[in-house]
Amino acid sequence: xxxxxxxxxxxxxxxxxxxxxxxxxxxxxxxxxxxxxxxxxxxxxxxxxxxxxxxxxxxxxxxxxxxxxxxxxxxxxxxxxxxxxxxxxxxxxxxxxxxxxxxxxxxxxxxxxxxxxxxxxxxxxxxxxxxxxxxxxxxxxxxxxxxxxxxxxxxxxxxxxxxxxxxxxxxxxxxxxxxxxxxxxxxxxxxxxxxxxxxxxxxxxxxxxxxxxxxxxxxxxxxxxxxxxxxxxxxxxxxxxxxxxxxxxxxxxxxxxxxxxxxxxxxxxxxxxxxxxxxxxxxxxxxxxxxxxxxxxxxxxxxxxxxxxxxxxxxxxxx
Amino acid sequence: xxxxxxxxxxxxxxxxxxxxxxxxxxxxxxxxxxxxxxxxxxxxxxxxxxxxxxxxxxxxxxxxxxxxxxxxxxxxxxxxxxxxxxxxxxxxxxxxxxxxxxxxxxxxxxxxxxxxxxxxxxxxxxxxxxxxxxxxxxxxxxxxxxxxxxxxxxxxxxxxxxxxxxxxxxxxxxxxxxxxxxxxxxxxxxxxxxxxxxxxxxxxxxxxxxxxxxxxxxxxxxxxxxxxxxxxxxxxxxxxxxxxxxxxxxxxxxxxxxxxxxxxxxxxxxxxxxxxxxxxxxxxxxxxxxxxxxxxxxxxxxxxxxxxxxxxxxxxxxxxxxxxxxxxxxxxxxxxxxxxxxxxxxxxxxxxxxxxxxxxxxxxxxxxxxxxxxxxxxxxxxxxxxxxxxxxxxxxxxxxxxxxxxxxxxxxxxxxxxxxxxxxxxxxxxxxxxxxxxxxxxxxxxxxxxxxxxxxxxxxxxxxxxxxxxxxxxxxxxxxxxxxxxxxxxxxxxxxxxxxxxxxxxxxxxxxxxxxxxxxxxxxxxxxxxxxxxxxxxxxxxxxxxxxxxx
Lengths: 319, 551
What we know:
The complex is a heterodimer of chains A (319) and B (551). Chain A is α+β, with helices and mostly antiparallel strands and 319 residues long.
């Protein structure tokens, strides 16, 4: 298959999704929800909200409580048991605004939802306590996390520079960035909320995408050593095709696992597995459609400028 | 050519046994239930999967207000002196109202100057001035500034608590503001074994301070004696602290100190424990910040011959006479410290001091934040996913699929084994941190499994390529491994590099992800390459010449 022949389609595809995501993120930024500017909707981890503690008369069933809350149209509640088991308490967190009015609304909404949809009596006056909570992710944590991600990207770039060539590192990091952008864009477009678990999923897809890209690069490097005369576009194309069976197998298997998590994993893990489903598709696509063509484009650009045209075959691996 | 694999197989079994010990310890029985309880003791689950302790802390914001007004009192005294304005005292008249400062005894002739000094933006932005007469003034902290200060104090306390809990190796706590303007903090900690120790360190205000001693350095036998020396009433700018056997072994002495510290907790940059070679006494060596070093130098040169008290955790640990000016900011003090105390102090200094003291309001247990129902669904889905992958490998790679499945299984055993060993080690006092499994950690496991399967696919596809090129079984396996090895090393090392950086710089969920990923990938290099290779070779040894491997 001639992958590089499709490069303009690939470019168009990537552009459309990146720009759609960015546009929606800018729109979100210009239209803050509850006074908070953010390019993507943020979950209770980042925003804070209302915590309601309900004391039931019978041992509560968390699944039934969740169903009752969802039936009443309250989204993104986090529910867990609370206190000694004999107390029959459940803690429900809602991503509401953190002010006095929201506190009473949240409390009233939960009381109404439970009375309407869950058959387990409780005393709406004495048995329900509502409290406002701040975000669990402070600014310090946000800053540290993003710095950590930037440094780790730099670390990978340096390693690839050392093992291959600088351009390989740049191409791999650009591909990773492309994947993250499109995945986060997908959250903005579908209105899903970013929570801590989604952050973990995004870290996973960065690792996955990097792995996929390196497998292709490795084949390119190997082929460059064997056949020095073959034009680079043909060689890159051949390398992609040689690793294709592996790509299809690995991506297919990982995709199946993640898909089963997405379909059967329940509502709480839904955003997490959604990020992985999108991430694995895009991660596989980007190693073929973004990273490899970038190597070719870079060489063509250099030869147009009249510089040495051969893409360095990288240093001999020691393995 | 048959290879001797005995040593390699022995190594694999040794690793496997060690990891099984890590997961289960020495179980009390071999039944499913006994194994499960043994495992739950070793593998700690995080808040999101298992829940944990739910603590609500009250931040005593009055402490921060007190510190702020103490500073202002000093500033006002300095400014008045600089402008040559006379006054008798600047003080806080009521200990119950930390936000009120009074200036007494100014001269009526200078009333205008004093008034305009106190209304410069420096003070006016934080305090409201009310002048009763020409000679007395009262500054009250502006309510807007005070609530802003409270808010900053709570935020700073949250950051400090997070650093402290992190430095103790408790993975992924949950720390957030609680209540509306109630200055409370909610801390949730996963099921750790020594909750009390963590609770103590969270609220430890163990600040090292140096105060000037009122009178001579010998102190008093009882509080009554001490009070008698100041005519029964403690002046507002002085405080009474106990020596609690720290100054003279076995004897409690009471000291009266200046309330305002010469060196405050926040003035100390770092502390290290040491021993004085001449006396054998434990010492604390600390470095002051530049500003504080200058202040301390000035103070000691102006007060040679006077006494100062070293206070740690509200107890006077030593009283020393100032023999000569101490400049340069490096101070070594001897006192009744234990090495552990100074070590804890240095740990606390690294994480910054709490801006105010904390008290525990409420302690309870909270269930898994993800909800036990969704965890159950998630686990089922994950097991189904892994089983599908394993069955596929068996079908697609036939005999070699067993190889891949075994490698995958070993990988999970090693990963869990290392987590279990870490908690066994930390529990036995061997230091290090207890690794806790959380959802981000499981994300790391998913990536590990993905890359583990990928390593096998890479190797098998390569072997198939070699076979298609007409190579014999053992040559094809050799070549396949040799080629795939380069790729596997590159993918794994790249990811380990990034995971290590995430581990070093990240906190909370980022760290949890990086931990399992790093362990998992190292295990992967061992299983996918070493274990899988040994199984292949054991199989090749049994093949007759000309026979092919099943792949």
